[in-house]
Alkaline phosphatase
Amino acid sequence: MYDQVIAHIKDHVVTGADTQLLLAVDHDFGGLTLSSKWNQRPIAAASCTSEHLVSLLGQWKGDGHKGYLATELLRHYGLFNAIDDVLDTYKRSGSTPRVVTMGQALAAKAGIHWSTTSHISDDVDLYGAAGAAEKATGCWASQKYRLAAIATARSWPGRGSGCWA
């Protein structure tokens, strides 16, 4: 699905005279491992992000956080039938650890494994595209990324003169 969305956006950007795309990657992670038996169904079952659900939990004014979390919130993240130990973990941890714990639980159901939950220490990537990309100017924060962009830039024949770097 992701590839189809990106292809659609690229087509629109390079054919639109007044359309530009600027994409900043928030951060990078290390240690992602997809096993040969990974299952995307648990991820597809999630209808909200863990951040949104933790925010809703924080706004809950009623009694029974554990029940609200188990019956109302976790099901929106594809986590059904949470056991009491897991619910106690969510209750004890703060907002950010709850998000991480929910993410780890969903990843485990999908067969996705992480060797770390930390960010790597690297610069943020910036990608851009436009029908007249050759006219774009700017300041490169890193010579490394400038050279990488030049080395990987490719035009899209039949789709305008834009380049993706």
Summary: The first strand starts at residue 20 and ends at 24.
